[in-house]
Amino acid sequence: MTNETNQLKIIWFALTMSIVLYGVIAFMIVPRSDQSFDALFANPIILVLHLAGLAMFAISFVVPANMLKRSNNVRMAMIMRWAMIESSAVFGLLAAFIGQDVRLFLPLGALAIAGMLLAFPRG
Asked: Does pTM top 0.70 for this prediction?
């Protein structure tokens, strides 16, 4: 295992733990409202935040792959991918704060964790 691989795993772990920390913050601070989950998405800001989170997640697998075609900088591409995946969780945290319901974090937080697991550095 190379030194660069170890460094990438440390960066991956730190960004993954930040997503977990966002979830802890959401569960500690944001209440759960009495509204149905579907009713929460009637707010256009909540809908836009979730769509932005989904878009960032999708783009996180396209942009770094295109970067690798142009240059061979794997480290930069991986860090960019992880940061974009993490931003999905940030959009979920914003939605939870704005919508005043912790459940709004769950879809994007879970998606971000799944994305980070998919993007684990190998080698």
From this structure: yes
